[in-house]
Amino acid sequence: MKALVFHRPKKVTLDTVPDPIIEKNNDIILKVTSTAICGSDLHIYNGLIPQVRPMVMGHEFMGVVEEVGKDIKHLKRGDRVVVPFPIACGQCFFCEHQLSTHCENSNSNYGPEGGLLREKGAALFGYTDLYGGYSGGQAEYVRVPFANFGPRKIDQSLTDDQVLFLTDIFPTGWSAVDWADLKGGETVAVFGCGPVGVMAMKAAWLKGAKRVIGIDHLPYRMEVAQKSAKAEVINFKEHDPAEIIREMTGGRGADVVIDAVGMEADRTLFDKAAQFVHLEAGTLNALKMAVRAVRRGGVVSVVGVYGTTYDNFPWGQIFDKGLRLVGGQAPVHKYIDELLGLVRDKKVFLDDIISHRLPLDKISEAYHIFNNKEDKCMKVVLKPHG
Ligand code: NAD
Ligand code: ZN
Ligand code: ZN
């Protein structure tokens, strides 16, 4: 079959690889009908999360069940499903506590040197050997392990585009807001008007925010945040967002600030922009900026991925402001059924952020344009079987 293989940073190609097969009795093989590229894939693409051997990438996918293992209970060939991006057993301590991204049984790989890069933790599809070494779904077919726990059936009344983002980015945006425990009436500021940021903005409204602010430097993405998520927007290259947010909130700062950027935000860009708005170099790093932009006693919720040791962390400021900090990979299994309900009831629309729909054979070009934010690229969806 054809699949997108990571070879080394910036080199991903559509290769012919062996078809996946049932390896365990609770596996299924899925024929992938839609798959997307995520900002998280860019960390691997850009070499920020290491991967040595070639690997099939992709953790946002859905499709039709092709084959089931002997122990599969609720699925059969022909069923249409979406698949959460974390691979989780459904039975361990963490899975029972709705923490599927910390499953004890899906990842037997450890980071080298006593987990310096990563302690033992859950696996993700197509996300390096540190995350379990499983092949991903940017492919014609994919093996889905623990398939009694992850996949959710989708009926024919919903299109792939309407539900594909239940695999990751909508539950991720939702997690960021859920972790902040909104009571209603809050101002929520979201750093990053990429796919995850815009999903967090949509979630903020649904959870009772009274004001939603998006921050980015790409005008076309700020426009998506305005149109698709009804956010007010700030360009961090033109203004110091923390200052503007304080002006907008009676001098206090936002009640909740979400980092939907992560380490991808490149430091040269920050440093250039920092000069422009007369800030100290490095202060436009999204996480530090989030700490500045939140009000005293507020919450900073981090879904942007930080894959390595992160130093120069502003603990003094966090302590003085009495902040609550929360973050991590989204426990998709916890939220997906509720969120599917919201999509089905038309309380939220997820497909209006798709900028590119392409066949699988265009996927290496798609990585390039999504990474470089070319051609007003917001979110790419690929259809491996046309
Ligand atoms: P993306 O790269 O498409 O979007 C990131 C956006 O941030 C871009 O529009 C960029 O211009 C903007 N940006 C860069 N620096 C900024 C700054 N200092 N302030 C404000 N905006 C800035 O990526 P995405 O797909 O939207 O993903 C965003 C982040 O979320 C990534 O780090 C990704 O790995 C992470 N993610 C996490 C989870 C999770 O479970 N926690 C799941 C999916 C994605
Ligand atoms: Zn993703
Ligand atoms: Zn588990």
Overview of the molecule:
The protein is an alpha/beta fold. It folds into two domains: 2-168 and 330-383, Quinone Oxidoreductase, Chain A, domain 1 (Alpha-Beta Complex), CATH 3.90.180.10; 169-327, Rossmann fold, CATH 3.40.50.720. The chain is built from 13 helices and 18 strands. The chain is globular and about 60 Å long. Residues 266-283 have low confidence and may be disordered. Bound molecules: nicotinamide-adenine-dinucleotide and zinc ion (ZN) (2 copies). One zinc ion binds at residues 88-89, 91-92, 94-95, 103-105. One zinc ion binds next to loops.
What's the mean pLDDT score? 92
According to CATH, the fold-level topology of the largest domain is Quinone Oxidoreductase, Chain A, domain 1
Number of helices: 13
Q: Output the CATH homologous superfamily of the largest domain.
A: Medium-chain alcohol dehydrogenases, catalytic domain
Q: What is the total tally of β strands?
A: 18
| Class from secondary-structure proportions | alpha/beta
Share of helix, binned: 25-40%
Approximately what portion of the residues adopt beta-strand conformation?
15-25%
Radius of gyration from CA coordinates = 20 Å
